[in-house]
Amino acid sequence: MDEYPEGSLDNSIPFLLTFGTRTTTEESDSPAATLSHALKDEAILIRSELEPLDSDQARAVLRYIKDRDASNLPCSARDSVPRRYRFRVRSAERSILLPPRRARLPEGYEPPSPTQPLVLHSPYSPLSPISTLYPDGIIDPNWLRKHQYLIPSVLLCFYSLVADPTLSTLCDNQIKTDINNIRALLSQSGYKTRLAVVLLSEHGSSSSHASDGVQERLEIIRRGCGLDSKALFLVPAGGSQEELERVAENMLTTLYAVAIDYYRDLGRHSRKKRSRGVAPQPTVPPTSGTSQTLSLAGWNVRYDFKTAVFAEYRLEMDVALRSYELAYENLLSSELMELIPSWSPRWNEGRLLADTLAVRCLRCLLWNGQHSAAARRWQYHRERLADLVDRRARGTNNYSWEAWEARWAVVMADLIDRAGIAELAPSSQRLYLPPEKSAMGERLQPWELLHHKGYWYRLAATHVQARRAFAHAIPDDHRRSPGDSPATLVAKSAFAYDTYMCPEPYEEYPLRRPGVNHGRIIIDLLTRARDEFLKRNQVRLAAEVSLDCARELAMTEEWQKAVDLLRPLWKDLPFRSEGWTAIAESLTWGLRAAAAQIDDAELVILADWALLSRDFTKRPNWHYDISKALDDVDVSSKPSVSVRDGQFQSFISAAFLFEGEEGRAGQSVRSQLSITSNAQPESAPVVLGSVYLSFHGCLDGIILRHQKSEQPASARGKSIISTVALTRQADGGANTEKSAEDGSGLTLLGSADLTLHPGQSLVFNMEVPLREPGETRADTVTLHVGYDDFDLRQTITLQERGGKSLWHISPSRTKILPRPNPLAVRVLPRPPKMEIRRPVWKEQYYTDEPIDLEFGIENGEDIEALAKLDVVLFGEKPPSFTLSVPGHEDQISSNVRSEEARISAAPIGTIASAQSLPVRLRLPPIDRPSGYDLTLKVTYFLPTNPGTPISQNAVFQLNVVNPFEANYELLPRLHPEQWPSLFDPGNVVIPPAGDDAESQPPPQGISQAWCLVTRYASFAAEPLRVTDVDIVIHPSPAAQYSLTRRTGLPSSGVGRLVPPQTIQEAAFDLVAKKATIDDRGHAPLDVSLVIRWARPGDAKAAGEEGAEPPAPEKINTTTLPIPRFNVFGTEPRVLASVSHHRRRRSGRSKEGEEEEDQEYVGAPFVTLTITIENASTHFLTFGLSMEPSEMFAFSGPKQTTLSLLPVSRRSVRYRLLAVGDEAEGSASGIGQGGKKEEEEDEKKKDGREKQEEEAAGVWVRPALVVRDKYFQKVLRVIPASEGVRAGKEGFEVWLPRLG
User: What sequence ranges are listed for the domain Trafficking protein particle complex subunit (predicted)?
Assistant: First the structure.
């Protein structure tokens, strides 16, 4: 687009001129903003008499405005940063030149009539004689430049508003005078430029009085200058940068609306002129040439063009597009271009205007997002002009048309670049844009879609190449300059060539001097296209373009640039592997030629190595000998070249196979390596210096060195199979290859004939020893070619062949290995003969006991072994354990993780053959049921193969369970002591003072008795001896507890042998006493059951008789937590207790006779005591009633009332005696429902116990009711002693049988 006249294709952006500030550079010196010499004399000077502002505030505001210049912004409606305004900004200090509004008359011209003055027009109008358009031109590109760079839409004047009150009036008057002068000059110029004023305040005070004074001065200035309120702006002093930017932003937003009104007025004026329908007359009638003035159709094109330009200023792109299209069609109609002869200068001006209209149409379409319409519009203009030039001009088969085609393609690329289309950005990786919705239903051709810039640059390069071809076809007579040619020849060829925006033939391709550098233009365009293709990963197109560019560089003998261009593509792009052999061949030959010219030895060697392939076309008279690669290259030192895998498809391929799928450590596996040549048939053989085969895993690297065979070359066939013996050599030896340094610590060496003829395969059979277990895979094969002039190494990555793994049996026979992965072998560990045995383990292990685990490590090898032991205990929070090995110190485990305890590599010494070594693990007592995985790993080494470790693993399950489980019941009992009285002053607790303040006073509160009954069961797999059962009472601040223990265990201390799955019972009497009588809250009772037990020591200990107490160190303690109980409370409770009595025989007992041996007479009777406790602070009254029964007789109150004081208790006693037939031996008839309950009890007892109970007595249910008199609530009677139990319908009492 730079070849078009300046300003003709620029974006139409409102022009803002800042006036009155100091500028570092005079922008009016730019070519676009400079008036021509013909107009400078008539220019209008706008000048200010005040000094330009140079304060920091003025510079900051001016800098912000210039930073918002939209000249270089993308021409797109979808801007990434939304903007409220767009300005093209220029700055001037205190003077500007405006072009004259009217053109002057020609010199020496006399008006025909002094009474009729001539009408003067714009110097850019075809009506003015001084205009280049006079008399029949259409539009001058300078008219566009006038509105873009010369005549501002807004003139923004800067002044300083002084703060000195003594100078304020004077300065304000100077500002008003200067503004009025500028306004008058603008009015005299005839332009409608809007005037705006910015006042930079120096007032630093923010008081209301100062603000009122500034506002008053502003109003005076505005009225004195006749300014609109939207045209006067105040920038306060002392504000922050953010405030200044906010003021400037609001100012520019306001001015943008003013500028849009300015261009709207200009557009309205153009439409008004077009609507007249009459062609205006020129100032002076034409008298030369055809004396033809511009027709009405031309005037319509001119006015449509102006209307469209002003609409574009206003960003009304739809309006601008319609006007541009209308002007374009009228321009190329039969009324204008069809009538202009091709030899006339107006013809080229018409073509220039057509291009300008088409470019602006494209810009409007891209602005609106009509991408496919823009591509079709570009093609339409190209075809339309081609048809016009073929019919009316000199045709399209010439260098001029190809130059225009190239220029037109570059214009489209520049428009796409300036539009900033995000969908075509390189990051999107799109090659073209899909059609918009309006074109979805049409069948579009591929070239009717908008492609990225690389497509257009490449198209332009193609046309430049065609232009060069046409230029080189120009005859020599036409290539001479006019001064060196006869006049007749000059006249004959004057109009033979089309020179639209291109030089004459003698300048396009001169005969004796350089002309247009077509090659440089082509290289520049191809380089741009290549960059765009690479950004979008179009590597093949980039390679093709690079190859064309390299040819151009070769034509200009720029060899280094050609190498720099082709080297990355040749090394990085796998053309041959993808089937692009032709591109790869051309690229390689071109790179080889350029590299030879600059003596690049590495590239020459690589190119010759690649050109040996049979896939390329054989070139006659080429040596095809890699040893002669550097014959025409000057080198200062011996080069060393490396070819990485995938850089290019080499003519040498390699394959490797393991015959077996698996093997064992210490053994060997058979393998086969084949190297095949696909070189040109008549090429020289390649002698490989060495071959290095590397593995990924535990195998050694293999090096094959060249050793010439005595067999003549003629006797060698297509495939040569040889067996190579491998020997082991340590890394770093004198003969170890450098390529093996990256391998393992040992290297296998072998020798073979490595001479590789064209089309030949070298097959090597090898026995590879296996060392360590694991999977090993053949990785790469490195070929080394060494000559006197250079060294070359090529690395080939071994790959699977998709089921076509061929094993060479003989030179003519192969077989397929039916293996999915023949490159890998699975090395199994050597079978271990070391056994880990568990001699004696207990049947089950329990919590709270130390655990000793014994193991035996038995050596089954034929020789002794040096062993190490790894022990891992895995589970939830495993304990630390100790490992004991005879002859070694004990080792303690470490917790590597929260779920793992480990001892690693514990030395256990040398174990002789067929011997066993005992080891012991000690675990501390474990306090919870757990399950662990115990892993023992013995790693040993044999003296015959000390480098190969052999391991044996053993995994054991260790389960630790609870030996006992228990349930608990807390039964109330009647405490024999009296409760303290709430009304006794002696029970008042006085806090101690002095030294006794910290001592604990004795408890003086109420007391209660309880019985804790525990039933524990053994869940062990064997009988356990329980030596002691106890409870531990945890202290409580609310009460004090005392314990009376009753376990039922033998008093000898031997304990009791508890069989598995049996239940034992232990009862404990507790007494709880409150600290004070005032405390009536609940008291917690926290108790733990402690069972001391031991495993039975021997067979004798398993019985009860003759057993001895176990040793203290063998007694284990198991603590079972008991759920919390709550004792005491404020609710009243009723306790029932019994005592049995029988009257003794009268008289004294005999001397020495025990009490239990005395004789009793009379019927046995039972005393039932009903105790009511009132622990509250209220007076309570209870009613008691005892109903008679047929089962027993009683003495005592049948009905009575008890009144209880606060914190007190009272008792009522009844004597009960069993009567009736049922009481004499039958357990039936014990009150209502007693028969059924007795039947249920009988079912639970064996026969013998049932008979004993029936003979001893009977359970009866007294019909005793205790009722709260106030709440009328019946209280439940709670059993509080033996002989009383709770039934389904009340409490029951056991009465002995009569007799």
Answer: 346-614
